[in-house]
């Protein structure tokens, strides 16, 4: 055999032995990488229906409840029926709300938004009586999302698009209810 062929064969055998070592050998000294999901839902997926939804944003307040015989009804501010498709679209956007990142709990409350100081506050109640809440604060300096605090106390970053979709739908519901 020629010298280059022997060298190639030796390299192949070394690589094969190394691959076998990694597959079956003791790798406790090597760095282990555990894959983690990049995003997860802000609210645990539930098979239950939402019976009550409250959204507060920039001085606007909307509370809608589901009336079994007549569909969704605005309780506050107007007390009239709204297009159920728009309300269902808003609920779907809220249930699909994803968390981009969990942030340190010591983030300033002024950025997160707490209680009445939140830029957007979303509260909803399932048919079982279980309720969820999220308070959305300021937009992150990078513009990639909004700071928020979940019901469980976690401080998170939510995607800008998702939060803005919910506030746009809020405006749509309010306009629709005024025109009825």
Characterization of this structure:
β7 and β8 (131-139) form a beta hairpin. The mean pLDDT is 77. The chain is an alpha+beta fold. Helix content is 32%, strand content 31%. It has helices spanning 3-24, 84-95, 109-112, 160-179; strands at 40-41, 50-57, 60-67, 71-76, 98-99, 101-103, 120-126, 131-139, 145-150, 155-159.
Shape: elongated
Note poorly predicted spans: none
Query: How many angstroms separate the termini?
Result: 90 Å
Q: Rg from C-alpha positions?
A: 26 Å
| Helical percentage | 25-40%
The largest sheet, given as strand count, sense and whether it forms a barrel, is: 8 strands, antiparallel
Number of helices: 4
Q: Kindly name the structural category.
A: alpha+beta
The domain count comes to: 1
Mean pLDDT level? 77
Q: Spatial order of the strands in the main sheet?
A: 4-3-2-7-8-9-10-6
